[in-house]
Amino acid sequence: MRSISAEDRRDYHLFNMIIVDDEERARVGIRTLIDWQAHGIVIIAEARDGQEALDILGTHPVDIMLTDIRMPQMDGLELISIVSGKYPHIKSVIMSGYDDFAYAQQAIRVGASNYLLKPSRRQEILNTILDITEQIQSEKLEIKSLEHLRQGFRESLPLLKEKTLSQLVLTESPAYPQLLANLKMNNLIFPYLLYGVILLRIDNFRQLHQKYLHEDTELLKYGLKNICEESLPETIVCIAFEHQDDIVLILNTDELLDHEELSGYIRIIQDNILSYLRFTVSAGIGSIDKNLQHLRRSFLEASQALNTRNYTGTGKIVEFSGEFDDEASQSSYPLHEEQEVLKAVRNSSPEEIAGKLTQFNVALQPETVSRDQVIKSSFALFFALYKLCIENNVNVNKVFGQNLTELIQVLSRSSLDHIFQSLLETALLVSEHLTSKKNSNKLLEAAKLYIGQNYMKDINREIVAREIYITPGYLSLLFKQQLKISFTDYLHKIRIEHACLLFKDPGMRIEDIALQSGYNDTKYFYQVFKKYKGITPNQFRSNAE
């Protein structure tokens, strides 16, 4: 094996490569005939067979592995198979003679990124490796892009914004002044006279959901909203929010835009989404008119345009035909009933929850609207319950299982009665978890109250637990989960803060202060005080004076 030193390794540019070949002449040729450093590549190590290569990979950072097929101990096929499972980020390139071409094809199947036929020319080897570096760089940029979206998502205030925009557009008679005040908190204002809605729908959304984890799917939708808001000219205010996996764009402008202008802007949005996020969207266009009240009608128009039977394919742009179907307004989402269900889940009995759910189901009007619309609305309530769990730090896996996508797919193939029953069971389970959490909060407050009244006594975890009728272990868990602090640290902090108040009396001896703060041992009091205050009691008294 030949390996570069740690000092040399600090100088590498972007990519580390290992050469695996039992022929020294072949390894030396590959290493010396190409100026790898000039292309940002360092030959970080060489190995004579697959087993030696695996030993190196355990201690060296490697991006690219160039390996022969026929080697002693462990051949290239077995090596690539192991590396693909253990180090999936490593790109493998197989080298084989013409007689081994079938092995090269098998290597591709087990994880190799490319292959070279021996003997290979210098430029052919270099081009192949440079193609691999471009793949790695592209993957790194995609990861960086997702991380950037993740950071922006965490730092924003999506919940209030989404809820407010949803009420503004989807409810029939919202409280406009309050909603506009909420939007102003997010630095969102509508300065112009005209309003309209564009509705965007991700094409083949199910495939996207299968490709990415749930969090990454949400990040992509977050990125989609950003692209929409940033793609239109400054003369048009564009605010985006999510509704049942669609993206609703509120347009605010001082000029009446015709179909051709709106379609042009939508095509820009579609091109940017395809370029940056790698998927397509279709759009439904509602009319533009004066005053905020028009937003709801424009949304219904855009929704009907997008749901028309004539709409097929991907990347489509469909304008409202002008013939409004009353069914569209009848099938709008019962937001008020949803809020009543969530309120009952937070505070009410199982009977009250069941009653509110029945009202929600009746409001969906399953006997008059399409099954697809009822299913979508039911799933929206599922996600509202899911969001309620997140907001209250309830473990969603205990309520919805490990795979929410699988749950939704199963329910989508179920009868409406089964879906409604599943909604009721989920709502009741969420309510149980919230009630349990409230009881935990009450127990914690009881423990804090007892400590506040008895900290000067010789109390400990067991005594406090016995007083509020729980086990010492559960008491410790409450402090850790709710306050992110241990029981002992909390007790010490209460005692030390009381001691600091007593130091205001210059006539009190430190021994008396320690005793009144719950410490019979003055030396131990000195140790604890310095740990939590960073100075000794004498220094604290001097500073106070």
Automatic annotation (TrEMBL):
Keywords: Cytoplasm, DNA-binding, Phosphoprotein, Transcription, Transcription regulation, Two-component regulatory system
Modified residue annotations for 4-aspartylphosphate: 68
Any coiled-coil regions, as ranges: none
Record has Transcription as a keyword: yes
Domain spans labelled HTH araC/xylS-type: 445-543
Listed Pfam families: GGDEF_2 (PF17853), HTH_18 (PF12833), Response_reg (PF00072)
Domain annotation Response regulatory: ranges: 16-133
PROSITE patterns per record: HTH_ARAC_FAMILY_2, RESPONSE_REGULATORY
Family matches, as SUPFAM superfamilies: CheY-like, Homeodomain-like
Cellular compartments annotated: Cytoplasm
PANTHER family found in the cross-reference section: HISTIDINE KINASE-RELATED, TRANSCRIPTIONAL REGULATORY PROTEIN HPTR
Name this polypeptide is given: Response regulator
